[in-house]
Structure formats: structure tokens, C-alpha cells
């Protein structure tokens, strides 16, 4: 998510993804296998399955990218390359067409990002307005909200410190996008090297504290998220357990 598309990148990406068969993205319509499958011994059948699998992958990528195509022309282009036939248009014409196509895809991506950003911003504002009325939720001057889940009695880090924490990050709908457990245990990082909402919260916490943070978009990634599933202007919910201020 990021979410912007470079000119022609989507075209090149789709071609590459069609050529390399990935078992990580099986066809959606395929039934769940009852037993482990194996490639057929017959060479002709094997080639048919390879061709079909590549075609399905290509088609899936086209559909997922919301690219409108004319199937007959698409197949003609593939066939002409494989057979060595003369192209129906000059290379200059095709390059100009692909350049325009890349620009159109960029415009669609930007428009989609703007729609997501607007929708998520409104949802975040509505949630924070209601959440801030809870007796166990504190709201800071910046708009950061937090709940104290467990109180510690250790020192509070400064902005120059490095800390060790357990954490879990989720979207407003509960979808987890990251956690220290995924990476094998507590994470260590500088207080000034994380999103603004974390930097603010960590300096208020004491070693031993466990807080739940409700981080407004402006204190998280705003309109430039690191990628899916985090969308532009997403409100992020974290649980942070401050384990240690790392000795210098």
C-alpha cells in the first residue's frame, strides 16, 4: 500500500506474474484438493496444464487489477509473439498506447487512494469522537487516545532512548497487520524511530506498563501507508507492553 503505480509497471508485473506460476495464489474457483496433486506424466497433458495454469494466473491478475481487456486481441498478441508473426501495429504505436494506459492506471490508483483516504478519515473521526467519551480512555492534546491495561512502576523513556516492547497492531475492524510475536519476540527500537503516536505514548509510559493506543491517521501513516492492509488515513489500534529502556 505503496499504492501508487509507476508507468507500465502494472503491464510488466502482470506479464511476469503470468510467466511464473505461484502456488501461493491458487485459482479462486478451484475446489479444495482431496489429496496431494502431482503433475501428469503424459507430456501433452502436462503442457496443457502448464498453459492453462499460466492463463488462469494472468486472467486473475487482470481481474484483480480491474483492467478491462478485449480477450480476442489479447490472445492475438500472445499468438503473434509465439508464432513470430508481424505485429498488427508498429512498435511506436504500441509503446504510445502502453504509455497512455500506464497514465490511466496511475490516475485510477490515485482516485482510488483518495476515496479510501476520505472514507477512512471520516470513520476515524467518528470512532475517536465516541471512543473519547469512555471513562477509561485518555485523550492527549495531539488527539492520541489510550487505555491503561496494566500499570508498571519503572522509568519512563526519553525521546533519545531505545526500548524493548511487545506489541500488536490492528486496523479498526480488528484485522491484525503486525505484532512482535510474528517476529519471534520483543522488538527493540529507538523512541524517535517510530510513528508519532508511538513516540508520544512511549514517553508517557513506564517500564511494566501495558497500554492500548488508538492512533489517529495524522499520528500514524496519514496518506502514505507502508502497504496493505493499511490504507491511507487508517486509524491504527495497538497494544504496547513496555519491557525495558535499553541501557546505553
Sketch the topology as an H/E string, one letter per element: HHHHEEEEEHEE
Average pLDDT number: 87
- From the helix content, strand content and strand pairing, which structural class follows? alpha+beta
Low-pLDDT ranges:
1-12, 14-33
Care to describe what's here?
- The chain has 248 residues and is of the alpha+beta class.
- It is 39% helix and 17% strand.
- The protein has 5 helices and 7 strands.
- It has helices at 9-19, 43-64, 71-83, 91-131, 196-204, and strands at residues 138-139, 145-150, 162-171, 176-179, 187-190, 210-215, 236-245.
- Strands 1, 2, 3, 4, 5, 6 and 7 form a 7-stranded antiparallel sheet that branches.
- Helix 1 runs antiparallel to helix 2 (43-64).
- It starts with 8 loop residues before the first helix and ends with a strand.
- Mean pLDDT is 87; it is low at 1-12 and 14-33.
What order do the helices and strands come in, and which of them pair?
Elements lengths: L8 H11 L23 H22 L6 H13 L7 H41 L6 E2 L5 E6 L11 E10 L4 E4 L7 E4 L5 H9 L5 E6 L20 E10 L3
Antiparallel strand pairs: 1-2, 2-6, 3-4, 3-5, 3-7, 6-7
List keywords for this structure.
single chain, 248 residues, alpha+beta, seven-stranded antiparallel beta sheet, 5 helices, 39% helix, 17% strand, elongated, disordered N terminus
Gist?
Mean pLDDT is 87; it is low at 1-12 and 14-33. 39% of the residues lie in helices and 17% in strands. With 248 residues, it is of the alpha+beta class.
Amino acid at each position: 500500500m505503496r499504492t501508487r503505480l509507476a508507468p507500465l509497471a502494472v503491464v510488466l508485473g502482470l506479464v511476469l506474474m503470468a510467466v511464473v506460476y505461484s502456488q501461493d495464489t491458487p485459482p479462486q474457483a478451484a475446489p479444495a484438493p482431496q489429496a496431494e496433486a502431482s503433475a501428469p506424466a503424459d507430456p501433452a497433458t502436462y503442457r496443457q496444464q502448464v498453459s492453462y495454469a499460466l492463463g488462469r494466473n494472468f486472467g486473475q491478475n487482470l481481474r484483480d487489477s480491474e483492467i478491462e481487456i478485449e480477450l480476442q486481441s489479447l490472445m492475438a498478441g500472445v499468438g503473434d509473439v509465439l508464432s513470430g508473426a508481424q505485429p498488427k501495429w508498429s512498435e511506436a504505436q504500441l509503446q504510445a498506447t502502453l504509455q497512455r494506459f500506464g497514465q490511466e492506471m496511475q490516475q485510477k490508483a490515485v482516485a482510488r487512494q483518495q476515496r479510501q483516504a476520505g472514507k477512512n478519515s471520516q470513520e476515524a473521526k467518528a470512532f475517536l469522537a465516541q471512543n473519547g467519551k469512555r471513562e477509561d480512555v485518555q485523550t492527549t492534546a495531539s488527539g492520541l487516545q489510550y487505555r491503561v491495561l496494566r500499570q508498571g512502576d519503572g522509568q519512563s523513556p526519553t525521546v533519545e532512548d531505545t526500548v524493548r516492547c511487545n506489541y500488536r497492531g490492528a486496523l479498526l475492524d480488528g484485522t491484525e497487520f503486525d505484532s512482535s510475536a510474528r517476529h519471534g519476540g520483543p522488538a527493540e527500537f529507538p523512541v524517535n524511530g517510530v510513528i508519532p503516536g508511538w513516540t508520544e505514548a512511549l514517553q508517557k509510559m513506564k517500564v511494566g506498563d501495558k497500554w492500548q493506543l488508538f492512533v489517529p491517521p495524522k499520528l500514524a501513516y496519514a496518506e502514505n501507508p507502508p502497504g496493505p492492509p493499511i490504507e491511507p488515513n487508517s486509524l491504527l489500534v495497538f497494544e504496547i507492553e513496555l519491557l525495558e529502556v535499553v541501557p546505553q
